[in-house]
Amino acid sequence: MFCTQCGTKLDEDARFCTGCGKPTAHPPVEDTFTAQEPRYDQAPPGAENAGWSGAQESAAPHRRLRRIRANKKIAGVCAGFAEYFDMDPTLMRLIWVGLLLVPPHIGLIAYIIAWVVLPKS
Contact at 8 Å (CB) between 18 and 10? Predict the structure, then answer.
């Protein structure tokens, strides 16, 4: 086999010319490894009965921001925020106290607004 552009002699299984780099007329060689790319718009194999509903469903469970009355100290706002952000309620309470100490008392204002706005659980 010869290159049609420069005339260099090529091996029969060559895909490119060694002299000029032009592709040969042969179709590309198939890879022996034929792994399928994962499809994220379809259910994985064996997930028919696992509650799969398609790509529109997010991987994380749906969480609502709410006041939790079972784990409350004052109104349940800190416990609700702690559950929403998946953290310890004591750490969230310390964050709210830190916000309370900021000069315009943004923590107090935000806590009162959250107390009024957030639904009870």
Answer: yes
Domain ranges of the chain: 1-29, 77-117
Q: Which amino acid, 95?
A: I
The pTM score is 0.48
Q: Is the pLDDT of residue 39 over 60?
A: yes
Q: What count of Cα atoms within 13 Å lies in the side-chain half-sphere of residue 15? A: 4
Q: What's the maximum distance between 2 C-alpha atoms anywhere in the chain?
A: 87
| Cα three-residue angle 78-107-71, rounded to 5 degrees | 10
